Amino acid sequence: MGEEHVIQVSELTMTYQVKENQTTTFRDSLTAMLHPHYRQIPALKGISFQVARGDILGYVGENGAGKSTTIKSLLGILKPTSGTITVLGHDPFTHRKENAPRIAALMGQKSQLWWELPLMDSFKFLQKMYGNVGPTEDQWLTTMIERLEMTSFVHQSVRELSLGQRMRGEFVATFLHHPELVFLDEPTLGLDVPTRKRVLDFLLEINQREHTTIVFTSHEMADIEKVANRLLLLNHGTIAYRGDVQDFVGQYRTLRDIQAAGHVDPSRVLQPGVTIFRRNKESVEFLVDTTKVNDQQMLTQLSQLPDVTGVQFLPVNLETILAIRGERHD
Amino acid sequence: MTKSLGPAYLRAQFKRQSYYRFNTVMAVGGAFLAAMVQYFIWRSVAHTSASSVEQISTYAIVATAYALLIPTTTVANRIGNQVLKGTISYQLLRPTSFFSLNLWTQLGTTLFLFLTTAVPLSIAYGWLFHVRLMLNSPVAVLSVLLSAALGYLIAYQMGFLVGLIAFQTVNIGGFISLYEGIMTFFGGTILPINIYPQILQHIVAVTPFYAIQYVPLRGLTTNGVRPLDLLIQAGWVLVLAPVIGWFFRINIQKIDVAGG
Fold it and tell me: Chain B residues with CB inside 8 Å of A100's CB?
């Protein structure tokens, strides 16, 4: 306890072996059955990073970048091909039981609740499992239930709940035993806007009050930007950025996302420093490099177009930046 | 349905089945063993006296209720499903032994089945089929209870071992089929093993399958379980414990956790 870095990863590599056979005909299927071929897929290519106690790390990347592979390795349920990992001072793979009371995970696509039983039964069961019984723990459970507005359905069986209700239940189950380190893999999946806000506010509160370290993976960049202070960007198994979220966003401060509503003919606006970022049904968004074209020039040009009904400056946020990088293949 | 859609479904399912090719091999092995049992059963029936037939039929009838309580397949399937769905991740993250966690879960299932199926069935058997158990003393009763407990534990250990295979293969349907075939042949699931030829009886007696069901059931029909058989059962529990620990350590290194 008391280590400065809760997670330390050095040269982590993970290579999967997958079956690969052409199976377009019956003969191919039989051949694949008797003589399967395998190929190696490098999911992680020697990545290194650290997570300090109390940080909320936003771990982002495209589908198939290697995020879940990293999380599974940090949890100690997937043995990496090579490299070293230390979680809470231990190798997570060989010390899974030692780490278990101190860590938690929420994997959005999998449930840790008892499907046929009332939600409250799952909570009580988990309290017993972690030895967190007593009035104080019950009060903590009650606080979380009220905070996430679950009182109306906490005695219903899990299988009867909506996805949003179940996800709130998963949150409570995750934080029941006061873990020091929490892995959240797509935790806002299926949540409506008010519930998402409630959950994220709750996360921030726990982090500030209990100094819980959180590793947060999500495709909802607005969530990452709201709660995370550190960012780890994974791109095809390698780290493309590691550092502060705001520093990363700040690197793109010279860009503008300008939306022109109406029937816009982009060819009348395109020039060095101006590209089409996104076509929407009733507008076009232009990405403007202000080192080449300043805001006022762009505004003037767009306003002079006869079919443009409105011009708006949109925030260049994390989602926009990652979309830009995706198109540039950065 | 258009002309090409049916064959397309057929091809797709064939390809799905061929993904788990080892299961196919295991299923064939299991069916073969079950067929061998049938062969010995009917050969034995032709050469068996009336009193022996009564003992055999009592065993066979009671076996149908007892088999419902054997946990092997349920445990293996539970672990296999957890691996298939990826929820095995949560099980491995708990501060409890994976073995114990599954054992207690299985005991809950067994208790439910005992109360809701085995007990009513046993009462029905006594009433409808006039099944009478040959237990004439408290020692006999205790010996059978202890034997049943040991047999249960061995069955759980075997199911756990089969379930661990899922860590690598994901689908263990074929292994379960093979196991059930082996249990039918070596475990006396349907009929007592004493109908087999002597040499087969000697071979079967040194397997853990023999200790799971045949020993306690024979005790029910022959006034208790012999101390030597109880020792053999206890021995299997002790032998399988380190095997499980070793097999878990091997397979956890190769586990294939589904989903991203």
Answer: 93-95
